[in-house]
What we know:
The protein is an alpha+beta fold. It has a domain at 118-245: CATH 3.30.1330.60. It is 53% helix and 12% strand. The protein contains nine helices and five strands; from the N terminus they run H-H-H-H-E-E-H-H-E-H-E-H-E-H. It has helices spanning 11-20, 30-78, 83-109, 111-115, 134-137, 147-160, 187-204, 229-235, 252-255; strands at residues 119-124, 127-133, 168-173, 212-216, 237-242. It has a five-stranded mixed β-sheet. Strand 1 (119-124) and strand 2 (127-133) form a beta hairpin. Helix 1 runs antiparallel to helix 2. The N and C termini lie far apart (50 Å).
Amino acid sequence: MVIASNRKHTPVVLAFLVALGVGTGCSPSREELQTSLDDANTKLSSEQQHSDSLQQQIAQLERDLKERDARIASLEAEGVASEADLAELRAEQERRRIELATFRDLFGRLENLISAGTVTVNFRKGRMNVELASAVLFDTAKTDLKPAGRAALDEIADAFASVAHRDLMIGGHTDNVPIKTRRYGSNWELSTQRAVVVVDYLIENGFPPDHLSAAGFGEYDPIQTNDTEEGRQFNRRIEIVLMPDLGELSGIKDMVPR
């Protein structure tokens, strides 16, 4: 899933043309042309780097699977593991293969949103996250979905329809700038309500409510520094987290007191 920098009619290029006033009769200066072109190239480069990073993470997961296959084969050949242990290891490998196939499928379904820069997909804390900047979904200090936010969530709902049997956690996040309005007394309240609004919208789009949860993290789970405005923009976000499908953990019943 590589985003080619010379792809025709990408959202970045379209935005670039609009900024230049193409088709509007405007005549930008050479300096304006160069500035807009530099900005477009910078964004395309950033998108390419993110796409490459996703490819690298997928490749690492594939390497991990191969290494575990080799270790299981070695254990089997040496006869140092019981059949029960080997069966458990093989079952875990199969779960990992299914998870990797799920990641690949979702990446493909979200490709348009990723290439447009609307969402960012990554692996964090061992889970697959789809991140949307709060500015895409909400106005400042508000919890009413913007039209652009609804359109993005419509596409996300379509993409995640393939994993409607899995649990999703919707996490609301803010920067560390305190908020205190008549309706929301803290960033905790704002982030939590935004997560609930997204959950409600996904339910309206047909996602099973028994596979959804909402959580507000306020300012306490930043992904970048809050010391700069750019960092704060990244921290103001909604995360859609694909929760791990762990299955029944071996031996868990024996650990629970009766």
